[in-house]
Amino acid sequence: MNKNITLYGVIALVVVILIGGGIYYYFTKEEVPVNGELYKNEQYGFKMTFPDSWKGFTITEDIWKGWPTTTESGFEDEYEGVKITFGNPKWTLRENWQNIPIMVFTPDVWKLVVDGKLRVSSVLVLPEKIGENKNFVFATSPRWTFDNDLGVEEAIAIVKTFKGFKVTLEE
């Protein structure tokens, strides 16, 4: 009878180790994109997968500006935040290929945009939220696909791979 208890104990231990190892691997593995390149932004906590056709894309960081739509007391005159633009490597002066502009908001400022208290474009079109993490909300710029640029469908497909992840902000 002792041999059976020992055998069951060993089997249970092996099962626990295998399950624990599987869970650890699942949560710590690095994603390997299929037919593309994984871009990971550690500063803001997001990632996207770019197809091989975007090999050599450029990244520029700029500022978006916003203006209040109300005169409530305590409301700042102007807001601004980060806009990261992924440049299509096929873009030339003769052929406009669709770039991907992503606006970065704090959750509080995003709420102002959604509530209609902050305007971030000269047009009355809200940015489209594409993801979030604990610290930031991400959206595409208003009108980013209104133009007849080449490769719009491919750019939209890239944005659909967007995922936010947790980052630790330095104090």
- Measured between the Cα atoms of the first and last residue, the distance is 60 Å
What would you call the structural class?
Answer: alpha+beta
Number of helices: 3
Percent of residues in helices comes to 25-40%
Largest sheet: 6 strands, antiparallel
Find the count of extended strands (DSSP E, 2+ residues). Answer: 9
Quaternary structure annotation: single chain
Describe it for me?
This protein is of the alpha+beta class and 171 residues long. It folds into two domains: 1-30; 36-164, no CATH class. It has three helices and nine strands; from the N terminus they run αβββββαβββαβ. It has helices at residues 2-28, 107-114, 152-159; strands at residues 36-41, 46-51, 58-68, 79-87, 100-105, 118-119, 128-132, 137-140, 163-164. The protein has a six-stranded antiparallel sheet with strand order 6-3-4-5-8-7. A three-stranded antiparallel sheet has the order 1-2-9, with no helix packed on it. A hairpin with a 4-residue loop joins strand 7 and strand 8 (137-140). The N and C termini lie far apart (60 Å). Mean pLDDT is 82; it is low at 25-33.
